[in-house]
């Protein structure tokens, strides 16, 4: 199947899969797997076993209708031949995804970038380096990597690499505090008078940044708690589910899943109505919500702040010690 | 003793004039910092040029219109082309007084030009500098300070919240309406864009220069140094500026969720503008309150004009207009019986509504006069001069090049080719 025909198929099948975030993401997976198969055919048989994984919102199974690509490759054999093959393959994947409708990643988190396309042993070295370096960039990379979910190929490579992360955190609990700092800055969306803090100028005036102010507090803090508790699940909802099975979190996080589901729901409903422009997609115009929806949204945002405060106290060890 | 006081008063007035003239430097920094690089040289240059022009006009007719004898309802009619002659019985050098008043006229004009920023032709600056200094400013100044009808009503405007700031702001308002918004300021769907200034440090330095200059503006307006009253005036001035900055920070944090720097800077200036009318008539606590209210008012005023789709690049309408109105009214509320050397005490000091009424009438009539006449003059200029505004191309390349042929920051705009040529 050519990329063009995948795109056509995607466009025609679209509205059959946009009823829920779950259905939508299952459909995204299907499309991305088709892209993979086509790239695979184009590049010929690989020289060794491998694993293709997605990260970012795709890794968390939380993609919006449009989202950019975030993915990487792990291959078994550390040889020049394998390197050349998978770099070429990675580029083919990125180009294919772009053609089908997943824009290139601004941050270059793609299999076509040697940082994200490595042999198993090199990946392990890199991960250890990220853990030890604790620089702004390495921590950002590590957080991105932690949402990795295998789409094609060997499943256990990612699990093994994540085990390295878990082991490190067990031995160096202070590291979580360093991770916490990286995600502490949240763009406030509810102000002193409990009013929405919308953009005041520019083409998004009157809107809130749903990604930064709505999703980030949930996604980032739940990820951090999952890292603390060595949870392998990648979607925010399944991470919440696993966390609430632990006694410590049962009470504190029992409200969390419902709020996050609502957030996914609002985004989906809103996106169905809007033009397909990746720059606009993160903004939610408050005027388009009904009175009840506004109230609801405000509560979701405030609860995001609450989750942030809670996570901070958990990570800093002031509770659950 | 009288001779010593005469000399001291004159020194004080010239010192005041120096501080007020230095405020032109503050305005250059404020305006250039709040606008884009491509217009910076133009803004600096036109400020010096128009102040020079206004000085000559003030000498020729402005001073006579404001303070001259044989006056009619609008203006006085003597002392044109002022010779430096000493007026009988004046306890300070008349020439020093002249210089001090000239500096004020210059400030009002510079405020008016805030509404021209980044899009008016240089020739429009030239013509309006003359017209404003002949027809607009002297009438309001004569009414309130030159013994005109508002002075007879006991209108309190110690150093010119109305005369200098509001008059300038009203002319700026007329100009922004006739000039229309800058290219790219408003979107088709009605939202507005932030056209960021190129140097926030300049803007803040501008505010500090103005703040210090204001001690000449308000303190100097005592004219005399007897009993050191200017010290009290300076104290009130500083309190209001501080309160304005604090209030602006608080309101911006509460409403926008962030401590917005342009808002803080506007708050300090609004406090200064507001206390200008009342600095000699109110107690210190009232000065703090007046400044504080001005800091909040200026924040909402900026939002208000933005919503009206009035493009006011350096917030002249809000800082000098809205705060000027508030400052003028504030003395009708807070003037104390001991300090109200002009007019009556305010509402909160047993004066009833009478002084507040005088203030309200004075501010409305003055604002209306300044707006209507400025609008008419600018409208006529627009017809005769075939537009007040530079062409779209000129606006895009910047007024530095279009109006003056040189960039204020040449190295920022020079092409690589030229750079290499110079280097070799």
From TrEMBL, chain A:
CDD domains: NT_GlnE_GlnD_like. Residues 173-313 form the DUF294 domain. InterPro entries: DUF294_put_nucleoTrafse_sb-bd (IPR018821), GlnD_Uridyltrans_N (IPR005105). It comes from the Bacteria. Residues 17-135 form the Protein-PII uridylyltransferase N-terminal domain. One of its GO terms (molecular function) is [protein-PII] uridylyltransferase activity. This is CBS domain-containing protein. It comes from Fictibacillus phosphorivorans.
UniProtKB/TrEMBL annotation, chain B:
Residues 11-409 form the Ammonium transporter AmtB-like domain. InterPro entries: Ammonium/urea_transptr, Ammonium_transpt, Ammonium_transpt_CS, NH4_transpt_AmtB-like_dom, RhesusRHD. One of its GO terms (molecular function) is ammonium channel activity. It is a multi-pass membrane protein. Its main location: membrane. Keywords: Ammonia transport, Membrane, Transmembrane, Transmembrane helix, Transport. It is found in: Cell membrane; Membrane. Pfam families: Ammonium_transp. SUPFAM superfamilies: Ammonium transporter. One of its GO terms (cellular component) is plasma membrane. The chain crosses the membrane at residues 12-30, 51-75, 95-117, 124-146, 158-179, 200-217, 229-254, 261-278, 284-302, 314-336, 356-379. Gene3D superfamilies: Ammonium transporter AmtB like domains. GO terms for biological process: ammonium homeostasis. Belongs to the ammonia transporter channel (TC 1.A.11.2) family. This is Ammonium transporter. It comes from Fictibacillus phosphorivorans. The lineage of its organism: Bacteria, Bacillati, Bacillota, Bacilli, Bacillales.
């Amino acid at each position: 199947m050519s990329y063009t025909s995948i795109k056509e198929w995607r466009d025609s099948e679209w509205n059959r899969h946009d009823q829920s975030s779950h259905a939508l993401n299952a459909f995204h997976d299907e499309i991305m797997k088709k892209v993979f198969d086509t790239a695979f055919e184009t590049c010929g048989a690989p020289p060794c076993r491998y694993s293709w994984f997605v990260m970012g919102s795709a890794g968390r199974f939380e993609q919006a209708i449009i989202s950019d690509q975030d993915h990487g490759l792990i291959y078994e054999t550390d040889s020049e031949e394998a390197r050349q093959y998978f770099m070429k393959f990675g580029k083919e994947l990125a180009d294919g995804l772009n053609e089908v409708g997943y824009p290139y990643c601004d941050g270059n988190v793609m299999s076509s970038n040697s940082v994200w396309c490595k042999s198993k042993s090199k990946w392990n070295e890199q991960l250890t380096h990220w853990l030890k370096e604790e620089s702004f960039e390495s921590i950002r990379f590590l957080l991105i990597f932690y949402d990795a979910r295998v789409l094609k190929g060997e499943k256990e490579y990612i699990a093994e690499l994540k085990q390295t992360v878990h082991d490190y955190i067990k031995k160096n609990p202070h590291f979580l505090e360093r991770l916490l700092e990286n995600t502490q800055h949240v763009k406030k969306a509810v102000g002193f008078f409990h009013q929405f803090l919308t953009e005041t100028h520019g083409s998004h005036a009157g809107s809130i940044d749903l990604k930064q102010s709505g999703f980030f507090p949930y996604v980032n803090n739940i990820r951090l708690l999952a890292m603390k508790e060595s949870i392998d699940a990648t979607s925010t909802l399944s991470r919440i589910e696993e966390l609430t099975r632990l006694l410590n979190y049962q009470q504190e996080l029992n409200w969390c899943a419902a709020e996050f589901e609502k957030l996914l729901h609002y985004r989906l409903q809103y996106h169905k109505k809007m033009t397909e422009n990746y720059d606009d997609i993160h903004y939610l115009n408050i005027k388009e919500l009904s009175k009840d929806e506004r109230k609801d949204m405000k509560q979701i945002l405030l609860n995001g702040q609450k989750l942030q405060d809670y996570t901070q106290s958990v990570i800093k060890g002031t509770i659950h010690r | 003793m009288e001779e010593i006081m005469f000399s001291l008063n004159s020194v004080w007035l010239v010192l005041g004039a120096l501080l007020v003239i230095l405020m032109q430097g503050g305005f250059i920094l404020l305006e250039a910092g709040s606008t884009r690089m491509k217009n910076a040289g133009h803004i600096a240059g036109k400020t010096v040029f128009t102040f020079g022009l206004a000085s000559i006009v003030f000498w020729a007719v402005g001073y006579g219109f404001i303070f001259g004898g044989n006056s009619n309802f609008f203006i006085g009619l003597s002392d044109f082309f002022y010779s430096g002659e000493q007026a009988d019985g004046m306890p300070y050098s008349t020439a020093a007084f002249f210089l001090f008043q000239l500096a004020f006229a210059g400030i009002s004009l510079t405020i008016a030009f805030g509404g021209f920023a980044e899009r008016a032709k240089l020739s429009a600056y030239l013509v309006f500098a003359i017209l404003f200094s002949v027809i607009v400013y002297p009438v309001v100044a004569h009414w309130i300070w030159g013994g005109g009808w508002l002075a007879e009503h006991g209108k309190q405007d110690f150093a010119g919240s109305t005369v200098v700031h509001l008059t300038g702001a009203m002319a700026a308002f007329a100009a922004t309406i006739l000039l229309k918004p800058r290219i790219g300021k408003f979107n088709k769907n009605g939202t507005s864009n932030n056209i960021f200034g190129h140097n926030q440090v300049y803007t803040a330095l501008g505010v500090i220069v103005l703040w210090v200059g204001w001690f000449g503006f308000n303190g100097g307006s005592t004219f005399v140094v007897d009993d050191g009253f200017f010290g009290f005036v300076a104290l009130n001035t500083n309190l209001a500026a501080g309160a304005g900055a604090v209030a602006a920070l608080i309101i911006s944090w509460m409403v926008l969720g962030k401590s917005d720097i342009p808002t803080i800077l506007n708050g300090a200036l609004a406090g200064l503008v507001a206390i200008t009318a009342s600095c000699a008539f109110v107690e210190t606590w009232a000065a703090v309150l007046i400044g504080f209210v001005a800091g909040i008012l200026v924040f909402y005023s900026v939002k208000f004009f933005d919503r009206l789709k009035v493009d006011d690049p350096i917030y002249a309408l809000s800082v000098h207009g809205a705060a000027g109105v508030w400052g003028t009214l504030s003395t009708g509320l807070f003037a104390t019986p001991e300090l109200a050397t002009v007019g009556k005490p305010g509402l909160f000091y047993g004066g009833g509504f009478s002084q507040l009424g005088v203030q309200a009438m004075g501010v409305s009539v003055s604002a209306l006069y300044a707006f209507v006449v400025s609008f008419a003059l600018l409208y006529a200029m627009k017809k005769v001069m075939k537009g007040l505004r530079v062409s779209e191309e000129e606006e895009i390349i910047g007024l530095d090049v279009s109006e003056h042929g040189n960039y204020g920051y040449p190295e920022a705009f020079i092409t690589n080719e030229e750079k290499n040529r110079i280097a070799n």
